[in-house]
Amino acid sequence: MPILYNVNFINPFLDAVLNVLSTMASVEATPGKPFINKTRTSIGDVTGLIGVTGYASGSIALSLNQGAILTIVNNMLSESYTEINDDIADAVGELTNMIAGQARGDLSKLGMNFKASTPSVVVGKGHKVKHVSSAPVLAIPFSTPDGDLTVEVCFSHGVPEPDTE
Amino acid sequence: MPILYNVNFINPFLDAVLNVLSTMASVEATPGKPFINKTRTSIGDVTGLIGVTGYASGSIALSLNQGAILTIVNNMLSESYTEINDDIADAVGELTNMIAGQARGDLSKLGMNFKASTPSVVVGKGHKVKHVSSAPVLAIPFSTPDGDLTVEVCFSHGVPEPDTE
Prior knowledge:
Strand content of chain A: 25-35%
Number of strands of chain A: 8
Oligomer: homodimer
Radius of gyration of chain A: 15 Å
Largest sheet of chain A: 8 strands, antiparallel
């Protein structure tokens, strides 16, 4: 059965980002309009990545720019970091885990059961992460007062006709 | 049951790298001595990443420097690329898939069955990829005539006492 990137699929990720950032970091994120990322490439200063298997095989990426992640992690850890360091990389891994975990919980209620790998975190200003798959890449952008972040999801059983309007 | 990073676990990855590079790209890689990467961080100019679930949860990373991947992909595709581009990112995804696939096949013969996510590929000179997990990171380095590459494996049921001698 193909995965439609419709509202039922998008909302678990959208809700998870808002909930995790609010709960863990007291950061209120504002969602933008989801879109299909034809470049297939996440761009950020730090990116958490989780692979999934099960109902479909794919990847979930949480990419943030430096302003966004500094505020989030400083709030989480009561720190005042001014650049991306090892603690921040670990925190991005944990945030990605929590967001993917909450979204997987909601998706399982819809009959889509996924298992998740442990997270990897990419650090490097302006790095790019490309999702290698035949499935479209769904991007859900968010803004925060201090910077932007994007969740990107690419599941191999997706279909080329997205419903993200 | 914990995963010991012993020769039975290392050889499937070592053999897969040698075999895939030789078969796909006519590149003869020379393995170095496996070690536990205490920085938990893969460094490269391009990195293919695959998440795994099943017998254990974890990540497999194939990091290459520019010299190594240019020769490998130019041989694979009969091209003469001089910098890392989109085709090279896709090829790194496929190589990571093939290496992980062959290694998983060998590991399954030992009773360790893994499922793999689709690959993601990180591009950006000198980027770092951190494995976020409590398990040790096993690094298997290789050299080729035109540059170096490393396979790093971090499986969450690993144990802190590696046997890589």
